[in-house]
What we know:
Layout: H1 8-25, E1 29-31, E2 34-36, E3 43-47, E4 54-59, H2 63-82, H3 85-101, H4 103-114, H5 118-138, E5 153-161, E6 165-168, H6 174-188, E7 192-195, H7 202-213, E8 221-223, H8 228-237, E9 243-247, H9 250-259, E10 266-270, E11 276-279, H10 285-297, E12 309-313, H11 314-328, H12 349-365, E13 368-371, E14 386-389, H13 396-399, E15 406-412, H14 415-423, E16 427-428, E17 430-434, H15 438-447, E18 452-455, E19 470-471, E20 474-475, H16 480-487, E21 488-496
Parallel strand pairs: 6-7, 6-9, 7-8, 9-10, 11-12, 11-17, 12-15, 14-15, 17-18
Antiparallel strand pairs: 1-2, 3-4, 5-21, 10-20, 13-14, 16-19
Helix pairs in contact: 1-4, 2-8, 3-5, 3-7, 4-5, 5-6
This protein binds nicotinamide-adenine-dinucleotide.
Amino acid sequence: MAAPKGNLQDNLKKLEGFLAPLRENGVLNHIGGKKVPAASGATFDNHSPVDESLVCSVARSSAQDVDAAAKAAKEAFPAWRDMPATERRKILHRIADGIVERAEEIAFLECQDTGQALRFMSKAALRGAENFRFFADRAPSARDGRSLPSPTLLNITTRVPIGPVGVITPWNTPFMLSTWKIAPALAAGCTVVHKPAEFSPVTASLLLEIAENAGLPAGVWNLVNGYGEDAGKALTEHRDIKAIAFVGESRTGSMIMKQGADTLKRVHFELGGKNPVIVFEDADIDRALDAAIFMIYSLNGERCTSSSRLLVQSSIRDAFQEKLVERINRIKVGHPLDPQTEIGPLIHKTHFDKVTSYFDVARAEGATIAAGGEALDCEGHYVKPTLFTGARRDMRIAQEEIFGPVLTAISFETEQEALEIANGVEYGLTGYVWTNDLTRALRFTDRLEAGMIWVNSENVRHLPTPFGGVKSSGIGRDGGDWSFEFYMEQKHIGLATGQHAIPRLGA
Ligand code: NAD
């Protein structure tokens, strides 16, 4: 992926312009078409991972704010549901146009807020626009059903939007992930209450502003900022919210399931991963190397689909790892707005502490730190891209999601052993298999426990395909019609085609 044009100094000047309104007003809630502070007036400070500087203050919502947002979403629901889908399609396309117009602002703010490199974020805004266009075009067919005639009935199915839904998103690529959840919900005819992550709340309010400027009616989409344990929890417990689409950690998913139990909430979870990239000796080694590096060190390794475990066949292990170390040591860590940067700072001090703590874990477990393994000596949450080698499958570094630019390499002898190691974790989001043996690829992908698998490829997202994980990596699928299955209810209607015999009790 080529570096974007420009230079850091110019980009920093531009950033100041984008930050000015945020500094003045902070990030507010957005309920029923109005930007409002939290009812209590409470706020929290949002700092940049780049240098801990204050980005802005943010509304700190409580159950009272969530209730106001849920009421607005409930009130707006009937008109949005009943609007001709072709009209909804137009509005969603206009939202995509608005995103494209402000793509640079979105990318710059996302970099400053999350620490993700501009190299990747400049594309993320445009991918967000694509999500809106993709689901916009499907809105007119979202209600379509089937005809399943029986001898006495014409059975038809149809789908209706489930109602107001809650969307809860994480901090790693907040803009793109928000569009990924909210676009299909709106296309289906649902109204939305969105709770973005407290570590990176900036672009969510920009996105809603764009949507309302594009003609989205007030109340159709509402935003409440705040912490997971108060605003997030209240959203999952609210009676008027019919479903929760959640992206985040597996243990948070488990909490949400409990919190939503009393109101029998429908849930869709996209959770953590410890995804294997499995390289067999017959693979195209150079391509496997490029893909393995890209899938763990892009997006700061803060990527649910990252290939955080390298399973490499022992016959090619030494040569592969040698090339890997050479490349890792050349990866450019730096300011996210420097176009040359490949890895930026980690999101937050607490996350930085978590990621760096695994350097000691690796040493204590007896693995080798073949690259990186230390923080950069500067302000900001910068760590060097890291490779652990000589790991065993049962080590913590081979089992736990680190969610940083940290790769754990484990070697294997046979295909069966590779499969056992690959499947021997609690997660099952993605898998990447490198082999030129077609029958092995078929056999292996069939038994690999993962929701998404690529053979001889990095993760290349295709919007009509199902996105989601198995085991502790998630419940449900996004993408194509799978998204509508979540945001809509199936209905069956049976119409009698004649005078069939009806059992006559008490006749
Ligand atoms: P997190 O679970 O800590 O937080 C995610 C969101 O949940 C935040 O908005 C947070 O405020 C909210 N939240 C926290 N506690 C809550 C509660 N009790 N009730 C309701 N909401 C609550 O996750 P994170 O640290 O922000 O994100 C990183 C995680 O997200 C990683 O595990 C990563 O793998 C996962 N992730 C998964 C995917 C995927 O598609 N599978 C994509 C991106 C990130």
